[in-house]
Amino acid sequence: MISAIKTSASYKWWVFSTIAIGTFLSVADHGSVLVALPSIERHFESDLPTVEWIIVGYALAISVLILPMGRLGDIIGRKQVYVGGMVIFTVAAGLAGASPTLGTLIASKVFQGVGSAMVQSAGIAMVISNFPGTERGKALGTHLSVVGAGAVAGPAIGGLLVSAFEWRSVFFANVPIGVFTIFVSMLILPADKPEPPADGEKRPSFDWGGATLSGMALMGFLLVVGNGDRVGWTSGILLLGAAVTALSAAAFVWWELRSSSPMLDMRLFKRKLVALGVAAGWFSFLGSSAARFMMPFYLQRVLEFGPRDVGLLLIPPALCMVVIGPISGRLSDRFGWRGLTVGGLALSTIAWIILASTLTESSPVLLIVIMLMFQSAGTALFNSPNNSSILSAVDRSQYGVVSALTQLVRNSANVVSIAVATTVVVATMGSRGVEPSLDAVSPAVAGAFVAGLKWAFLMMAGLLMIGIALALFRGERPKPVPDQESESIAAGSASD
User: Deepest of 275, 277, 285, 360, by most Cβ within 10 A of its Cβ?
Assistant: First the structure.
């Protein structure tokens, strides 16, 4: 039966479905753990800043390791990395559920982040490797719908598990699904052995120096940006961290340009589709991610909706991504990238401008939900075509590390977006004589908070406009060559 599946015309969708299980699991796990944090805080008699390291440690592990794991998959084979990542993810879930102390729980989630980095970097690379170049957008768009579905289902699943059992069930629930995913992956996924090197070329080796330097730079960057508002942007410890981060980043670029087998070939950024596509993606998330963090404060502490109602109100925007992602990907395969990427960013920009000009302490909740749906639809229109354009300009042997790069762009922009928007909001609150902290948000200080939120929306709209300019200047797909499916030819054309 397995051999029949592997030789069938629909095998690419079998591969996609197998990867989709792991993708859904990792995304839903994040949302369900967020719901469980208050219960974990009470169980261990801790405080929220400490408990939040369950999420922070997990996210840091993914961000630091996703590029090296992507490159490792390109070198030794993506199936090995994906299955190994699922094993680590599943074992760590069991360890987290059985944790006797908060410290072991945090350590287990960091360990799980290692597995998640392997799964994320190898999974999407395997998907697009099994689809022809003419269907790359469709594959990426459908993958985006799986991510959206996981984002919708995660909090709901977490809430049900915590209510029916206890917080440990949120982690234990991953174990049987993880075991099933490992079993199916070993049977279905292709044994993608790396292509042999050309005559006279050495087999690529893993770039330990690049992995170390990139990890230092990313760790420093995320810690500096994530703590800037709390410790002060001009504090000595933050300035020292920024200096170490900058030196690590410069050393990474220097090392990669001189390495015979670089982890991330910096020469790829000479190609306009890669350089401007990555930059446009970064500004897209920079101009949108903060809203998903800020709006629950507005809905709960200003409009005074309960957590359950807020969760329900945020489902329609997530469903927009589920529905529109695959459509956008298919359209990009037929009509190109520029119109969809520019249109998507423009739609998100309009949503933020409307909110910035109309938001009050008592805005109709229907207006809020509709604008969030517009923004989510804009992100869905932009994301798949943009990532497809980047991947069209690189060789198939680099899919792993470049796919990981697109996800790293999203993760890093999310952190910066939240940090910058928080600074804008609390600075505005402070200028109006209110305690400059999101913890102080309440109906009594709603005017100051809403004023800061409006400035944040304007800032995000401006950042999205930069993304629009980058998407316009990037250009469109190269003219197709008849019967041309070679990714290396496409990459050469894209760099002209």
Answer: 277
